[in-house]
Design the sequence.
């Protein structure tokens, strides 16, 4: 392997094959078409999913870029029905209070077309839950290590994770029960880790419906200079 020193550190040669313009267009179109079929699904089948699939998906999330390459993420993978039950009970407790007391009217009105409420059966029905934690700081040889752009890095890793779940042929819902500290307690995470997202993963129910919503067209999201 060809190597070069920069600041006294080894760099390895990186080669990415140069594709034709036609191939670039084809690849980018195909990926867009595939991603455009992704939908948030809230009705899960209990059908099991091989553990290897989940490990591949999480490994894909771990390929995300991160501030100063600190990789400030932890993915907890849960299939134990007792742990899933604990998470559902705690999430529903918080969501019940959120829907009845914490959420302002505008927010509740914005959620109406999505059909969500405090009940979260998917937290038990989905064969797996992934709870993503962001590490505010890390540890190396018992010493505290600074992390940078933690939310940006973990957000990008979650984007990779969601894309990998979809590409594998499964579905998820990006769930953010608020507040989420119950996840740290149930999963016994250390104090440098904060819960970021909760993603049930599995197959959709045989008959599943999703909200009839539109995505903004390119002209609305793109400004050319
Ligand atoms: C940061 C974030 C938090 C979300 N939180 C929830 C949630 O708590 N519960 C839920 O049912 N959906 C949640 N969603 C899913 C959105 O409602 C969904 O992505 C949106 O309605 C668009 O639908 P689509 O994903 O099918 O395109 C969340 C999405 C994001 C990105």
Sequence:
């Amino acid at each position: 392997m060809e190597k070069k020193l920069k600041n006294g550190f080894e760099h390895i040669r990186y080669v990415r094959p140069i594709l034709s313009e036609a191939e670039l267009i084809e690849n980018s179109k195909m990926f867009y078409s595939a991603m455009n079929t992704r939908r948030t699904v809230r009705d899960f089948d209990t059908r099991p999913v091989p553990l290897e699939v989940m490990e591949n998906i999480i490994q894909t999330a771990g390929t995300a870029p991160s501030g100063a390459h600190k990789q400030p993420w932890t993915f907890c993978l849960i299939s134990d029905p007792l742990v899933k039950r604990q998470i559902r009970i705690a999430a529903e407790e918080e969501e019940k209070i959120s829907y009845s007391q914490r959420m302002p009217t505008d927010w509740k009105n914005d959620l109406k077309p999505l059909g969500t409420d405090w009940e979260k059966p998917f937290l038990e029905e989905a064969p797996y839950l992934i709870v993503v934690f962001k590490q505010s700081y890390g540890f190396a040889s018992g010493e505290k290590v600074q992390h940078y752009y933690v939310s940006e890095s973990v957000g990008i890793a979650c984007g990779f994770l969601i894309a990998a779940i979809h590409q594998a042929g499964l579905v998820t819902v990006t769930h953010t029960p608020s507040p989420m500290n119950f996840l740290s307690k149930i999963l016994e995470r250390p104090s440098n880790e904060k819960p970021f997202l909760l993603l049930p993963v599995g197959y959709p129910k045989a008959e599943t419906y999703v909200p009839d919503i539109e995505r903004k067209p390119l002209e609305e999201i793109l400004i050319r200079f």
Q: What stands out?
A: The radius of gyration is 20 Å.
